[in-house]
Design a protein that fits this description.
CATH class of the domain at 169-289: Mainly Beta
Order of helices and strands: HHEEEEHEHEEHEEEEHHHHHH
Number of strands: 11
Number of helices: 11
CATH architecture of the domain at 169-289: Roll
Helix content: 40-55%
Oligomer: single chain
Shape: globular
Length: about 425
């Protein structure tokens, strides 16, 4: 066999091998899609609240990545790919230079900006690559994700406040067993209206109005479900020293309550030193007659701002008083979202506001691999170019930061799983 024929034969073998590889990949992708479809159908039918929680997280991550993409394009950068979800593409199309992808795993997403990775081939010579664009454009592209989360939170608050009306309160989400909030009898779904007669509207109010030198009184609103007619003194969750304020908005209610759903307002005395730790909280709209355009517009700025203050306070508590704070990971977030979905549409939407702000705030932290870590290097460059490490060194720093974040998420996730009551009971049964 001549050398030319050998080369032709080898080329044919390579082509057949490439076709077989593509065919196998297509089969693997179809199997992945089928498995994800079965899981999605099962979740929607058997665990609708969990499905709603996963959907919410995926939507907010997609909004975050869309913010990066929009401002990167606006700043003249080339965006090669924008994906909603992770895994092999369910559907994709190309518009202009960008491929838009819908993937089956709704727990993330990403945007590929040309040159964001300095090791990318051809990035150094591409005038539209990230590092070759003006400094302000790069800052905007990185800020785009957190800004999109804050903007979407503000829009949701405005639509809810103007569409429904009412007042703001601190909504209680997941309450962790064994923590002070659980010991005080607080429950997921409670609305905290006031402390010692002073209105509580935002999470940051808890720091200034609770846990002082003496006893203090919480005014709570709670929805309860009764299977049968029940006397007011025997309501589930009521304590002997609770002072009933209203039943279904009626301050003069007398007698027992019939079976069904009821809204109870009551005052609960908290003893000196009792804290409100060990629960997830967020601003919640309590429906009423108050509705105005100016009020809704003000709330669209105030609620994200106050939620950010609450997050900053939680971060401070985590560092200064770790025994009084708690750190939740993906499992805790999904459990909280699932609980809010079970509590009703309004609670679910208000949790979406809180989670959107949390995503924006978390990504702005000056930690390598996060948007805030990249912004630190860009701000150093703005002060003086010699203060900034080379792009390759920055990439290594972000890589190590990403590994550290993965390790932290793994530890927190293990703790989250261990805090689930069913898991705790199973561990006790096995003597663990």
């Amino acid at each position: 066999m001549t050398e030319d024929k050998q080369q032709d034969f080898q080329q044919q073998i390579d082509e057949v091998h490439e076709v077989l590889q593509k065919d196998q990949k297509a089969k693997d992708d179809r199997m992945t899609h089928l498995v994800m479809l079965v899981i999605a159908v099962w979740l929607i039918v058997a665990k609708p609240a969990l499905a709603a929680a996963i959907f919410l997280f995926g939507v907010l991550v997609a909004i975050h990545e869309a913010g990066h993409m929009f401002l990167a394009k606006w700043s003249g950068m080339r965006v090669d790919r924008f994906s909603i979800g992770m895994g092999p593409a369910l559907y994709s199309f190309k518009r202009g230079e960008t491929e838009y992808v819908l993937a089956p795993l709704p727990l993330g997403g990403y945007v590929h900006i040309a040159g964001l990775d300095p090791e990318e081939e051809g990035a150094a010579d591409d005038p539209r690559a990230f590092d070759n664009r003006p400094l302000m454009g790069r800052i905007l592209a990185i800020l785009g994700g957190p800004l999109a989360n804050y903007l979407s939170a503000g829009i949701m608050v405005f639509l809810l406040a103007f569409g429904l009306g009412g007042r703001w309160a601190v909504g209680i989400g997941q309450v962790m067993e064994g923590k002070p909030a659980a010991s005080a009898g607080l429950q997921a779904g409670d609305n905290l209206l006031a402390i010692d007669g002073e209105a509580v509207e935002y999470v940051s109010d808890l720091a200034t109005k609770a846990g002082g030198a003496g006893d203090y009184t919480l005014r709570l609103r709670r929805r309860i479900e009764l299977d049968q007619s029940t006397d007011l003194a025997s309501l589930p969750g009521r304590r002997p020293d609770d002072v009933l304020q209203a039943v279904n908005g009626d301050k003069q209610w007398q007698g027992s309550l019939p079976a069904g759903s009821h809204e109870i307002g009551f005052d609960r005395i908290m003893k000196k030193g009792d804290g409100l730790f060990g629960m997830q909280v967020g601003s919640r709209l309590v429906q009423g007659d108050q509705r105005s355009l100016s009020g809704a517009l003000a709330a669209s700025f105030r609620v994200p701002y106050e939620t950010t203050k609450g997050m900053a306070l939680s971060l401070y508590m985590l560092v200064s008083k770790p025994e009084s704070a708690s750190l939740g990971g993906p499992v805790a977030i999904l459990r909280a979202a699932q609980g809010e979905a079970n509590a009703g549409l309004l609670s679910y939407l208000m949790f979406a506001v809180t989670l959107s702000v949390v995503l924006g705030f978390f990504n702005l932290l000056p930690i390598p691999a996060l948007d805030g870590g990249r912004l630190v290097f860009l701000f150093l460059e703005a002060i003086h170019s010699k203060l900034t490490p080379s792009p390759r060194i920055q990439a290594k720093i972000h890589g190590y930061g990403f590994l550290a974040l993965l390790a932290l998420i793994l530890v927190v996730t293990v703790n989250d799983i261990g805090s689930i009551p069913a898991v705790q009971k199973a561990m006790e049964a096995f003597g663990l």
